[in-house]
Amino acid sequence: MKNKQTPSAGSRRKFLRNSALATIATAVGAKVVFASSMPEGYIPVVLQDDDPYKLFNKDKGLIVLNNKPWNIESQPHLLDDKVTPADKMFIRNNGLIPESLDEGTWELVFDGEAVASPKTYSLKTLKEKFEHFTYQLTLECGGNGRSEFYPPASGNQWKTGAVSCASWTGVRLRDVLEDVGITDQAVYIGYHSADTHLSGNPDKAPISRGVPIAKALQEETLLAFEMNGGPIPLAHGFPLRLVAGGFPASASGKWLKGISVRDKVHDGAKMAAPSYRVPCKSVAPGEEVAEEDMCIIESMPVKSLITYPKSGAMIGLGDSLEVRGHAWAGELSVSELHVSIDFGATWRACKLDPPVNRLAWQHFSTTLSFPEEGYYEVWAKATDSNGVSQPMVVPGWNPKGYLNNACHRIAVKVG
Ligand SMILES: Nc1nc2c(c(=O)[nH]1)N[C@H]1C(S)=C(S)[C@@H](COP(=O)(O)O)O[C@H]1N2
Ligand SMILES: [Mo]
């Protein structure tokens, strides 16, 4: 049988080649006339550039902060949709996006000190065996707003665009953990993913974070295989992603290969200080903080974003201005949203919708009028269900520049 392919392998190969050619033709936007002479695996020159907007199907308004790894942020006025569409969603990668992902052979391994015994599920089994749930879940990068801290914090200089609220469909991690069988030693879960470290070292994970077991067992914590009703886009974790809304988005592992149920706080890559940790007690700007004085970020703080109009709007005197946006508060809900047109001297309450489900952002809207011609700013301030409001200025400086939930503001010119 040496050097001979079975007919099924041969036809499968041919099928793969034909479908690859069809994909290429679609991407090129024309028939590739001499396609039959094209070497196998060859990528046409026209597709060889690494234009991230084409590569990831992103709106031209997104801003590339880094290309190795890819970090791309959105902008407030692009986040106006109630459900964030894929082309407006920020991308935050710590390593290299995995290649050749095969949904058909994808498996998820459960292991760790606190499982009765390790268990592996194919993606197909996960989909067939467990009930499906769909939730809209807010995912905000812990470093969103980092660019405003002074002294500056190193890392991607996110402005306000590292947040999304897409609709995620999958099975509950809770249901699967119940099937796996966990012991009462379980305190944390950690995820393992298929992306690779920038160094190229295959034994080194770029990131392997997790959540406390109580968060893992929440109804909304999903092993998701769909986003916005279709397959998860490659950059956002195809074909399987852990989604734990309300926590820093770093807890939502993309390209999910494994879950370890741990008898201690997970100790994977980027779990240790200073990553995704803030000083347990507030510190002076620029102060050095010992690693043992840094605490893991869990629920994200209350925050809001004005998504309409775009900052810099111009209206006529006497015109009214419709203002709208979203607000979210980590594990809590948002109870009030106020706006100010006089730099915070006075505030007025906006209409605020309840979330479509727990951990989804909430929409606010109001109509404003302005007393005379000139320059104004509209500031938005959300208050969470514990009565805590967003600060008007950049809050608690911390060495890595996390959790900036200062009020969002836009400029408006009247007349
Ligand atoms: N496997 C893996 N999962 C990951 C990351 C990553 O680099 N690799 N980045 C995390 C971080 S820090 C954030 S903010 C979110 C970003 O999700 P998005 O790119 O889908 O917007 O994914 C998280 N999950
Ligand atoms: Mo992040």
UniProtKB/TrEMBL annotation:
Domain Moybdenum cofactor oxidoreductase dimerisation stretches: 296-414
Cofactor(s) needed: Mo-molybdopterin
GO molecular function: heme binding; molybdenum ion binding; molybdopterin cofactor binding; sulfite oxidase activity
Keywords: Metal-binding, Molybdenum, Oxidoreductase
Naturally occurring in which organism (per UniProt): Echinicola vietnamensis (strain DSM 17526 / LMG 23754 / KMM 6221)
Keyword 4Fe-4S attached: no
SUPFAM superfamilies: E set domains, Oxidoreductase molybdopterin-binding domain
Protein name per its UniProtKB record: Sulfite oxidase-like oxidoreductase
InterPro entries cross-referenced by the UniProt entry: Ig_E-set (IPR014756), MoCF_OxRdtse_dimer (IPR005066), Mopterin_OxRdtase_euk (IPR008335), OxRdtase_Mopterin-bd_dom (IPR000572), OxRdtase_Mopterin-bd_sf (IPR036374), TAT_signal (IPR006311)
Leader sequence residues: none
Domain Oxidoreductase molybdopterin-binding, first and last residues per copy: 97-268
Pfam families: Mo-co_dimer, Oxidored_molyb
GO biological process, one term: sulfur compound metabolic process
PANTHER family: SULFITE OXIDASE, MITOCHONDRIAL (PTHR19372:SF7), SULFITE REDUCTASE (PTHR19372)
